[in-house]
């Protein structure tokens, strides 16, 4: 195959090998320009209908048009601006996966498989639960933050951190911060990243356990993904190297079989006994799985399992989006509710600013993603140019998941939404008391009119429709998402399938979150080994593939988050529940650290003209997170301030009273102790981030005065492999493939492109 375009240039590093890179300008054909124009028009119409016209009835289809159209335009133009003006990838340069390839942690991985791993690793509880809870403030603020936030903040962070880590041999976020920010800022970043990371993994674990405990169907389906992933890993590595499409079909077929057969297993006597696990047992099995995923070769379990999970994740969300387009449900929630102004929402307390931007974390920006972008992904990517579709594109995909979650919450009857998301202390726990309570709320229709009163029969029937004993006070967001998904997905199979789709959605959420635990544990191991490798005499730990170091660091990391997890499931008032309120703020503070690193590197590179790209989201996120931290520390409202809540329980305990959720004097003492832990950790995280910010400002000033400073970027190593930039090779890339084939060679030493 030949390409008749003088602007396309094939680049060789070795005269005895075919080209390793193709340089071709972004020049869309008239047809592609027309398609992009239509997509932009559809997005504009969606935004106008959501934000301007609105009216009495708002159709959920407008959300899909606004989101998808905005994502396509952002990936096509804004991400390319970052690529051309700031990052400037070079495919003639070997990535860490090629340079350090060892079949354990470093290995060139097909971009499609890697996209699946990366997306599965970053897409956890946040894009599912956060938008559901934030819906109490109305659909418009959440929609704006999810879509605009991901385009200008979240995807920018993921993409740029990934590229920076690739240029530094796959170093972790904390180590890169130390290298670029100096001793004080660097060690503050390392301590902040490690402590926050342990908490994040533990919180994700408790959400998984909440979905899977006493659920044999869910446990069986999730457990079967492990042997399926092992089979896929061996298949791609030894049996049929490079046959990605082939193994994908086999893997998806086996996964669907596992999901369907899960219901049969759950109904059998042996299955119900074997796969019905207590929360404590699940916590221990999660620790075992996390350790195994951390130490086994990445091609054997982690990458294929996450790739497999992506089919379930993206497939389910795609079917959900199709169901929304076909059924065109009406939005029941107003654009902005009174709770956005009063800060007294039943799902969570606090005003729209800053708490909406904390609650919707992963759907717009998440610090956890920066850990994956500087953890497993840079050690597996084949070419620098692939970082745009994997880093920026992967985050856009997660944002779409968040939009789908927000829609499923907002199409529910408002009474049902608030009954599900308010604690038992206010609903009473029964349909009768919940109906009385929810009718007292200041609710109105999207057009401003009154709502018909809720009835106990209506609430009870909603539970019966999904074969649940009760939906009252099913807090946390996940049950609401499952209920909303059952409403839409029942389009496929009828109303009689609501119960199936509800329980399928619960299993789907658990699968969604579990993949962040395995990748998160491996990344935490990388960070911990990097950190202790800075200690004199322990420099060997800096090699992430050193087997002894990998096992020791994995054991310590799992012991860290596992102990918190076990504490959380055995002590309902302590452990993880103490840390859960810190989850959103800690996650966003971690994003601040990541953006500080990116901003510092851009300034040291002398690209002052483009420093606003990471600088603007950094300033915004610092404003949000530090404002939220301030309120959590100093607010006099017990529902918001940790110290105020602490004082409330101290006074009640001294007066001999018991205040919910405590049920005894011992419980009161536990709450008092736990609020102190919350307060100390919130102060610690804020102080560490402020130290990192001060180090960033100082380094930026030095770089500005000097016209740039040296960075810790590693020297170029010439590449000897070839791979396309995107999912589908261009005509020029196909021509290069033909050259490799004609020479009797494979463009990747692992044979991933056979």
From TrEMBL:
Domain (CstA N-terminal): residue spans on this chain: 59-628
Record localization: Cell membrane
Any Pfam family the entry gives: CstA
Annotated PANTHER family: INNER MEMBRANE PEPTIDE TRANSPORTER (PTHR30252), PYRUVATE_PROTON SYMPORTER BTST (PTHR30252:SF3)
Family named by the database record: Belongs to the peptide transporter carbon starvation (CstA) (TC 2.A.114) family.
GO cellular component: plasma membrane
Keywords: Cell membrane, Membrane, Transmembrane, Transmembrane helix, Transport
Chief location category: membrane
GO biological process: cellular response to starvation
Lineage top rank: taxon: Bacteria
Protein topology in the membrane: Multi-pass membrane protein
Protein name, UniProt field: Carbon starvation protein A
């Amino acid at each position: 195959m030949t390409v008749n375009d003088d602007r396309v240039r094939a680049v060789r590093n070795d005269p005895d090998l075919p080209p390793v890179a193709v340089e071709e300008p972004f020049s869309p054909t008239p047809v592609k320009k027309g398609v992009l124009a239509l997509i932009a028009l559809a997005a504009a119409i969606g935004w106008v209908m959501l934000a301007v016209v609105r009216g009495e009835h708002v159709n959920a289809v407008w959300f899909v048009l606004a989101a998808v159209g905005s994502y396509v335009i952002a990936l096509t133009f804004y991400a390319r601006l970052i690529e051309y003006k700031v990052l400037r990838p070079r495919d003639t340069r070997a990535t860490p996966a090629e340079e350090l390839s060892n079949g354990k942690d470093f290995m060139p991985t097909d971009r499609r498989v890697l996209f699946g791993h990366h997306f599965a690793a970053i897409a956890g509880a946040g894009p599912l639960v956060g938008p559901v809870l934030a819906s109490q403030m109305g659909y418009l603020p959440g929609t704006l933050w999810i879509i605009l936030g991901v385009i200008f903040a979240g995807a920018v962070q993921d993409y740029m951190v990934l590229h920076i880590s690739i240029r530094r041999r796959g170093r972790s976020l904390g180590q890169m911060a130390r290298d670029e920010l100096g001793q004080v800022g660097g060690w503050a970043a390392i301590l902040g990243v490690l402590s926050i990371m342990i908490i994040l993994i533990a919180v994700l674990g408790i959400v998984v356990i909440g979905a899977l405990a006493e659920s044999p169907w869910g446990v069986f389906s999730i457990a079967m993904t492990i042997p399926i992933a092992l089979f896929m890993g061996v298949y791609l590595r030894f049996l049929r190297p490079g046959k990605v499409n082939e193994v994908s079909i086999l893997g998806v077929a086996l996964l669907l079989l596992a999901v369907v057969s899960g219901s049969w297993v759950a109904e059998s006597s042996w299955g119900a006994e074997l796969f019905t696990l207590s929360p404590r047992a699940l916590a221990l099995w999660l620790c075992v799985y996390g350790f195994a995923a951390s130490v086994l070769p990445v091609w054997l379990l982690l990458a294929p399992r996450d790739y497999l999970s992506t089919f379930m994740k993206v497939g389910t969300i795609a079917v959900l989006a199709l169901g929304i387009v076909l059924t065109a449900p009406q939005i029941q929630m107003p654009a902005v509710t009174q709770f956005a102004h009063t800060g007294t929402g039943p799902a969570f307390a606090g005003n729209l600013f800053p708490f909406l931007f904390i609650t919707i974390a992963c759907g717009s920006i998440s610090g956890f993603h920066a850990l994956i972008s500087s953890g497993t992904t840079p050690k597996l990517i084949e070419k620098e140019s692939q970082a745009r579709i994997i880093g920026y594109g992967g985050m856009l995909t997660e944002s779409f998941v968040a939009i789908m979650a927000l829609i499923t919450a907002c199409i529910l009857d408002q009474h049902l939404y608030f009954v599900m998301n308010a604690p038992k202390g206010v609903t009473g726990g029964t349909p009768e008391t919940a109906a009385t309570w929810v009718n007292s709320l200041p609710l109105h229709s999207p057009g401003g009119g009154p709502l018909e009163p809720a009835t106990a029969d209506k609430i009870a029937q909603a539970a019966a429709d999904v074969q649940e004993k009760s939906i009252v006070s099913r807090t946390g967001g996940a049950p609401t998402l499952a209920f909303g998904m059952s409403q839409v997905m029942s389009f496929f199979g009828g109303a009689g399938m609501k119960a199936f789709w509800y329980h399928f959605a619960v299993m789907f959420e658990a699968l969604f979150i579990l993949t962040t635990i395995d990748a998160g544990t491996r990344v935490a191991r990388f960070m911990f080994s990097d950190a202790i490798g800075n200690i004199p005499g322990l420099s060997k730990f800096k090699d992430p593939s050193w087997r002894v170091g990998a096992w020791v660091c994995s054991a310590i990391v799992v012991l860290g988050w596992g102990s918190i997890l076990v504490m959380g499931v055995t002590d309902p008032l302590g452990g993880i529940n103490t840390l859960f309120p810190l989850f959103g703020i800690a996650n966003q503070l971690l994003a601040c650290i990541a953006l500080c690193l990116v901003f510092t590197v851009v300034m040291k590179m002398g690209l002052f003209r483009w420093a606003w790209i990471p600088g603007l989201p950094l300033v915004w996120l610092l404003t949000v997170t530090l404002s939220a931290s301030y309120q959590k520390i100093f607010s006099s409202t017990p529902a918001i301030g940790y110290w105020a809540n602490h004082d409330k329980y101290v006074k009640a305990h001294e007066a001999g009273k018991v205040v919910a959720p405590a049920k005894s004097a011992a419980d009161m003492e536990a709450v008092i102790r736990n609020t102190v832990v919350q307060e100390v950790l919130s102060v610690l995280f804020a102080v560490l981030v402020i130290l990192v910010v001060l180090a960033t400002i100082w380094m930026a000033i030095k770089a500005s005065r000097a016209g740039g400073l040296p960075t810790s970027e590693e020297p170029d190593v010439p590449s000897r492999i070839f791979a396309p930039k995107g999912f589908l090779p261009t005509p020029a890339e196909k021509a290069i493939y033909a050259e490799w084939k004609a020479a009797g060679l494979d463009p990747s030493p692992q044979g991933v492109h056979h």
